[in-house]
Amino acid sequence: MEDCIELDFLGVETDRSGDAIAIRYSINGKTSVHVVDGGYIDTGTKIVEHIKKHYNTTHIDHVVLTHSDQDHANGLRTVLEQCTVGTLWMNRPWLYADELIDRFESYNSVDALRKKLRNIYSAPAALEDLANERGIPVATAFQGTGIGAFRVLAPTKSRYLDLILESNKTPEAAEESYMGQAMEGIAKVAKTVVALAKAVWGHEYFPAEGTSSENEMSVVQYALVNNRSVVLTGDVGRDGLNEAADYAPVAGLTLPGVWVFQVPHHGGRHNVNTEVLDRWLDKRMSNQPEKTTWNAICSSAKKDVHHPKKSVIRAMLHRGAHFSATEGRTFIHIGSGIKRDGTTPIPQTPYPEEQEE
Fold first, then answer.
1. 275-304: string of b/e by CB count within 10 Å (b at 16+)?
2. 52-69 per-position pLDDT tens digit
3. pTM, whole model, 2 decimals?
């Protein structure tokens, strides 16, 4: 039997978008199941039922939490409760309290800082507790780590620690920053709604500011199976994508060009820009090709009117992608070396004539 891989991007249909990805692959006759993120609480049951129905198992070799946001973490509770799991992979800020203590002026106790970080990052802390109760090993996922067929491209540990300090969630900044961050988000949304403008093919505009430190913590993974390259990005931003691209040759990934590229952060325009996309996906084409050779897949809810951004869809199409979003779908399935009965092709997303300015 030849090597094969199939990926299922499950729909997370709430007012806000979320991520939940189920993967099965076979290499040299050995089959593995790999889950990346779990959406919200209700998504967990969907993941378990999907794996039972389509993979005919309740065993998952690797569960990966890309970062601490609840739209990625909470559904994994059900997965850990209802499936047997080989390893839970996630990065936990509180493990590094002893390395961070000197950089927090208001803390002189490692135990106090560790407790505070577990409280702030409550979603992954709950997963750690559940994994310990069920005897599931928990491992870190920094650059260079092998997770089955996948290799972690980012973050490095040193950059991860810097991001903890920069995050609005960290102890010294938490109380005064939450409201400011919320108001800033509202302002950005309002600006986006009123700032659509006509744009010709190939024109791209992205804001100067990037995404949050929390999103930048996302684990970026790469696998090559059946000569098909897959890159899963979570909610990572431009800095993380550049860090991942720097490491890609070490992991055996030649850029630009991939077969499946997960569009970061549900199609957020603060996560990518022209330079980063040129590096990963090649430069803009002179016109849209009739036939596509790679896939940009976006996890975005139909009710989430703010994702994906039109500027991001345009940028993917500029580089010859077949762009598809999970919106309103039970899941998006893509496979190589294996076929699943009952699946039908998803039409290409129409090219947006407008973009956010």
1. ebbbbbbbebeeeeeeeeebbbbbbbbeeb
2. 999 999 999 999 999 999
3. 0.93
Burial grade of 209 (CB within 10 A; 0-12, 13-18, 19 or more): exposed
Query: What is the H or E stretch that residue 130 is in?
Result: helix 122-134
| pLDDT at site 1 | 62
SS3 for 32?
A: strand
The amino acid at 327: E
Q: Is the distance from CB of 323 to CB of 317 less than 8 angstroms?
A: yes
Print burial letters for 307-345: b (CB count within 10 Å at least 16), e (below 16).
Answer: bbbbbbbbbbbbbbbbbbbbbeeebbbbbbbeeeeeeee
Q: Any idea which residue has 């209700």 for tokens?
A: 42
Q: Is the CB of residue 323 less than 8 Å from the CB of residue 349?
A: yes
> Is residue 80 within 8 Å of 134, Cβ to Cβ?
yes
CA distances from 6 to 301, 322, 337 (A): 22, 17, 8
Residue 132 has pLDDT above 60, yes or no: yes
3-state secondary structure of 321: strand
Q: What beta strand segments (E) does 228-325 contain? A: 228-232, 260-262, 294-298, 321-325
Residue 305: its pLDDT value, please? 85
**Architecture of domain 4-356 in this structure:** 4-Layer Sandwich (3.60)
* pLDDT classification of 107: cutoffs 50, 70, 90: confident
Three-state DSSP class for residue 93: helix
Mean pLDDT of 263-284: 97
- pLDDT over 90 for what percent of the chain? 83
Q: What is the mean pLDDT of residues 337-342?
A: 92
